[in-house]
Design a protein that fits this description.
The chain is an alpha/beta fold and about 240 residues long. The protein has a single domain, classed as Acetylglutamate kinase-like (Carbamate kinase), CATH 3.40.1160. It is about 40% helix and about 20% strand.
Length: about 240
């Protein structure tokens, strides 16, 4: 019994680097594609947003002297590169996927529109939405919440390398305690760095639930959709 029929899957650019630490790890990319194919074959309608931190991150670029707007635009292009890589890998294993871009760059991808993206989902293909929101100063988490709301998804699945939300960074604090579920307000009160405040506010105001889970463990994506108690649910 599947818990959701239409989802927005947010993938981390840093996770896409895998063991390489930079760029795209082909093995990690293939692992993601296989997991996505598995749920697509179950009839799930899937929209995907990928970060670009494995290639370039606007904020870190600004810290090194880049103009912030130019740096964010470079980061948006990095998400397009990742999206094209995922689309190509999915197509190689028999999954139809279409890349949309937040700013016009045909023939690299189709210019994003809600109607065409939803039509893509309803036709059984995967809509990979790249380029963030198309605006500087917004993260891909904000883009994920925005596109998830626009495309009328039932949930945003935030795939990371950590198996949920903790009281502190579990990779740095061995005493960190995991939340099985948490409200948007509590994330704000505790100052937890799960996603930026814009994304949190968008999801809260539009009642879009978020599940944070470990995408790097094969099979977890299917388990989340089957309703298994892995990861952390964020809700109102």
């Amino acid at each position: 019994m599947l818990k959701y029929k239409r989802i927005l899957l947010k993938l981390s650019g840093e996770s896409l680097a895998g063991t390489k630490g930079y760029g795209i790890d082909e093995n990690r990319l293939n692992d993601y594609a296989v997991q996505i194919k598995e749920i697509a074959e179950m009839g799930i309608q899937i929209a995907i947003v990928i970060g670009g931190g494995n290639i370039f991150r606007g904020l870190s670029g600004a810290a090194k002297g880049f103009d912030r707007v130019k740096g964010d635009q470079m980061g948006m292009l990095a998400t397009v590169i990742n999206s094209l890589a995922l689309a190509s890998t999915l197509q190689q294993i028999g999954v139809k996927a279409k890349v949309f871009t937040a700013t016009r760059m045909e023939p690299v991808g189709r210019f994003y529109s809600k109607e065409e993206a939803i039509e893509t989902l309803e036709q059984g293909a995967i809509a990979i939405v790249s380029g963030g929101t198309g605006n500087p100063f917004f993260t891909t988490d904000s883009a994920s919440a925005l596109r998830g709301i626009e495309m009328e998804t039932e949930v945003m699945l935030k795939g990371t390398r950590v198996d949920g939300i903790y009281t502190a960074d579990p990779e740095k604090d061995p005493d960190a305690v995991k939340f099985h579920d948490i409200t948007y307000d509590e994330i704000y009160r505790r100052g937890l760095k799960i996603m930026d405040l814009t994304a949190t506010a968008l999801a809260k105001d539009n009642n879009l639930p978020i599940i944070v889970f470990d995408m790097d463990t094969p099979g977890n994506l299917k388990k989340v959709l089957a309703g298994e108690n892995i990861g952390t649910l964020v809700h109102n």
